[in-house]
Structures are given as structure tokens and as C-alpha cells.
Amino acid sequence: MSATLGTLLQQIEPGWSIGLFENLEAAGLESSGPWNNAGTGHSALCELNYAPASPDGTVDPKKSLGINEQFQLTRQFFAWSVNQGLVKDPKSFIHPLPHMSFVQGEAHQRYLKARYESLSAHTLFDTMEYTEDLDQIAEWTPLVAEGRTQRTVAASRVVGGTDVDFGSLSKQLVDGLAARGADVRFGHRVTNLVKTGSGWRLTVKNHASGETFEVDAKFVFVGAGGGALPLLQKSGIDEIKGFGGFPISGVFLRSTNDEVIARHEAKVYGQAAVGAPPMSVPHLDTRYVDGKKALMFGPYGGFSPKFLKTGKLWDLPGSVRPGNLLPMLNVAKDNLDLVKYLLTELTATNSKRMNAMREYYPAANPDDWEMITAGQRVQVIKKDPKKGGVLQFGTEVIASADGSISGLLGASPGASTATPIMLGLLKRCFPNQYSAWEGKLKEIVPTLGTSLDSNADLYHEVKASTDQVLKLA
């Protein structure tokens, strides 16, 4: 998020002074790191939680269409970054990969068919395929079909999906920021923010020397992942009052068998368990990290009070304030399914974890897999006039009334929608300048403000051109 925003600002206001402070020793090591997330270019092609069924069994495509439209803007930003030389080789961060959904049982079959019929009628999903034939599924993804006795199954597929290494992309964008004059400092932690007459005064600690210094800024963006909530709370802005966060951690199983890895070429998403957060939807994923193909399954839910993998055990209790205590207590009361899910996951044995994977890869051998720790995600808790507090599974942009400070809370679809989220933030925080920036922004993201789903010719033209630049065709 920060790398995207900095890159956009550097283009539209090249005379502005930009500084970036990163707590760790390089960019993209926390939530953006390739082993800390699924690497899915989230465009709602396979993620079933973006298209819930209504009580009558119909599927509303609205949310899926919105997320897909957002990812189209992100793809255009990717292509522009390659054309500008900010990213030297698109294969260093993005690869073409089919996106699939897979379900079992008659009820889930009916749902997936209804979802297919709802989405495939739209331009953005016009290449979606659907089958209930296990032999066809075996052609699409051999591991999912191998050894399967349950034949009441269904799958949908879009060949034009992507795998994205957001860690690699973040590093390259930050390198581009530094090369064009931004003051980028790693191993520096922002410890406090105080409002001044003209903006904000930041207190920054240099880990190497232990020294602290102050920086004045007219605008601040807090893009610290799970660490954004405590910093926004320190700012004291009214807009953060009532917000809390609930951290959810997890682990993946990663294959150590090159023969197994070679036989799978897709991201296969299934149905979430009852009470499970969207970031815990099970998926059997091909990944490309540092140019090498990998295979992982998960994530399995877990819990830690840390807001970041590199955070502190005091993060969760330290975030409690008088204004968010009631919303947090109400969320705990109203989300017993989530509590039950986490307790079940925390007590799961290795055998139970393997059984969960065998729902998607029946012939899985435990000797072929190792456990790795996934990233921390802090789900947003916010005030609600009716319930007192609600748990929100998406992303939330927080901005002060004067637009001088903003930050991002939440998780999925996250980095996949960084471009439209940051474009929206620019419009919100710089309302007087935004109209003058639109021309340049449309050079970066040509279809800004246009619905691609409503314009099939434009969609296919833009997709073909970005595919060519990103070497996805």
C-alpha cells in the first residue's frame, strides 16, 4: 500500500518531498512477504466468499464484480510500472495461473452452479468454465481428482488468473521511490505522531544507533499492516475512536516434493468452515517465489495477540481504549462461531491438518509437506449503532477530517486492490488537487472512472495489452 501510494504521489507531484520509514530491514517482509499470504491476484475468480448465496439460492454478483473491477486497475498499474522500468521483469512478481473453485456434495454443487450462472453472464467473467465431471476436473487439476471416491463434486475455472509475489513487487517499487529521490530508511520505527499547526511531527527511532529524531510532514499515510491501528490511535484523531482490531494468525503446509509440485498448476479455493474468517478459506495453491515453483495448502487458523509477526505480545491488550472496549466485547459475544473455529484450529493435530488437506488432495502424503508460519492479519472491529460493535473482514481506510493523516486497516483482498484504494485515498485526502491530477493518473491507470464490465470491447482491449506487457498471454 505505501509503495503504491508513494509511487503515485511521486508521479503527480514530482516536486514534493517524500519519506518512507520501515521498521524492518527491507520492504515487503511482513504481510506482503510471499510466504505470509496466498499470493492470489484477488479478482473474485475463485474466492467463493465474495459471492454468497441468498436464502432462495440465487447469487448476487455485485461484490465479485466490484473486486474484479478493482483488480483490473491494479493490473494496469502493474503494466505501467513495467513500462516505466520500475519493475525490470514482470516474471519477478507475476505469473499466469488458472483460478479454480472446488466443492463437494449436492448443496455445494447447486451453489457453485448458481454462482457460475450469475458471474459468467458478465464481461469480466465471460471465460469462466464449469463442470461436475470428475474426469474433467482431473484434466484441470490432477491432484484434486487423484484417489477421490466422492464423485458428487463441482468445479469452476478461469484460466486467466494470476499468482503475485507482493513482496518482490513492494521491494522493486520502493527501490524506484529511492532512485527518484525519496528518503527511504529501513530499520526505522515511527514511535509517535503529534498534530502541529501545519501537519504532523513524527518521532522516529533508528534501531541501529538507538537514537530518535523528529520529522515534520504535511501529510502522513500509515501503511504499517497490523501495526497501523496503534499508530493511528497515538495520533488522537477522532476518526479512529471506536475502532479495534482482532489478530488472526495461521500456518500453511508447503510441499517438499518436486514431483508433487510439478503436477499442480492452479489456485484451487474451497468453502470456508463455519465461523472461519475469509482469509482462512482453504486453498491448494501453486506459488512462484524467486522464480521457483512451489505448492502450499492452508491456511490453518491460529491466534497470537501480536499485530505483526515481528510484533509484541502486548499489541492486542495495549490497543484497548475506553472508546473501543464496548465494540470489542460485543464482537466477542456475537462471534462465538469464530471463537469455536479458532479453538478447533488451535487444538488440531497434524493428522487432522492432513485430513483437511485431503479434502482437496486425497492422495496427500504427510512426508511430502512441512509446516510454515503465515502472516498476521488484524481484522477490523468498529462501532455499530445497533449491535454496539461488528467484526469487519474487508479493508477500511481511516482519514482525518482535514485529510492530513490516513491509514489502512484490515485484510483481504488487501494488496490486490492497493491501486484503487490508494487512488480513492488521494481523492479523499487531496480534494482540491485531485482534479488537476486526473490526467496523469489516467496515463497510469487508463480506465480510471470507467466500468469495464459495461464495456466489453474496452475490457478485452485493455486486458490484452496488459497481458502482453506483463507476459501473461
UniProtKB/TrEMBL annotation:
EC numbers on record: 1.1.5.4
Entry keyword annotation includes Flavoprotein: yes
Cofactor names: FAD
UniProt entry keywords in alphabetical sequence: FAD, Flavoprotein, Oxidoreductase, Tricarboxylic acid cycle
Reaction equation(s) it catalyzes: (S)-malate + a quinone = a quinol + oxaloacetate
Pfam families in the record: Mqo
Pathway the protein acts in: Carbohydrate metabolism; tricarboxylic acid cycle; oxaloacetate from (S)-malate (quinone route): step 1/1
SUPFAM superfamilies named in the record: FAD/NAD(P)-binding domain
Similarity section: Belongs to the MQO family.
Protein name from the UniProt record: Probable malate:quinone oxidoreductase
Organism of derivation: Galactobacter valiniphilus
